[in-house]
Amino acid sequence: MFVLSDTLNNINQEIETKYRIGDTLPGQEVFAMDTLYSLPMVREALFILDIIGVIKVSPGKRTRVINKIENISKQDIERGLNKFLSSNVNYSEISSHLNEIYDVGETIISERIFSNVLNVRRNELRKYFIFLDFLGYFEIKKGDSRTILKKLPTNI
Question: What is the value of pTM for the model shown?
Fold first, then answer.
């Protein structure tokens, strides 16, 4: 959680100082090299910045700066989370299944397998995992595996 929080704030600061509203960001790989963060960390931070309205990510197009927030607050994150959770995916069901299958301290082995079992698009599952990580429910391990740190919320 803390690593992503630091990454999020640092990448937001990078956008704040180097780009104007309307500017396009470089590709994720270039942005990762420029900021010295890993590509998965950059993707997760950019996803959150998209949800809270700092940037607009459009598949197949360059990411654009659409707003500037000098210091990202907990309220900004909560607003973004509420917007994200208002989609048609049943996140409570996902958390319930994860809580049934995994105990605290265990590592989720594969997003792909889990998304197939729940019949949820892998991209939606990954986005949900990003927020759970940011909120302190997961610890990211090497690669893309995540260890559950506490029982997941089921009242979403």
Answer: 0.68
